[in-house]
Design goal:
Layout lengths: L1 H72 L7 H67 L1
Helix pairs in contact: 1-2
Length: 148
């Protein structure tokens, strides 16, 4: 009976160890895919914030043009007085919003990179843990085999 059990025991131990390695590899691939997805999400968010910044500048340009046109049509000098104050205010608010959008784009990319790094590290840890699990399986199998 021991002659039949020994090869079967060795085979099942080896299969278990290989399975642990493959599971670790699969988990690492899953984490790598999540890292890529996090990077893509960050790039997408950054593009949206850049578009928001471009929209702010377009709106600012329209606002300035309207202020100048209204002042000129009312017989007021568009480069001085209340027209200039309105333009200055529009410029400062527009640039504040545009800079905020640019900052948000940088933060989105930074957060995505951080998240991706965490996923990659989790994948490496899963892979390493699977190697240790496989070694432990083989060691336990060798010990048990010695007890036969």
């Amino acid at each position: 009976m021991a002659q039949v059990a020994a090869p079967l025991f060795v085979a099942t131990t080896a299969i278990s160890a290989v399975g642990a390695l493959q599971a670790g590899r699969a988990q690492q691939q899953m984490y790598n895919a999540q890292a890529a997805q996090a990077e893509l999400k960050g790039r997408t968010e950054a593009i949206a914030y850049k578009q928001q910044g471009a929209d702010v500048l377009r709106n600012l340009n329209e606002n300035l043009a309207a202020t100048i046109a209204r002042a000129a049509s009312g017989g007021v000098d568009p480069t001085s007085g209340s027209a200039a104050v309105l333009q200055g205010y529009a410029m400062s608010e527009g640039m504040r919003e545009r800079n905020q959008a640019a900052d948000n784009a940088l933060m989105a990319r930074g957060q995505a990179t951080t998240q991706a790094s965490q996923y990659i590290m989790a994948g490496k840890n899963a892979r390493t843990a699977s190697v240790y699990q496989a070694i432990g399986t083989i060691g336990a199998g060798a010990y048990a085999f010695g007890q036969l």
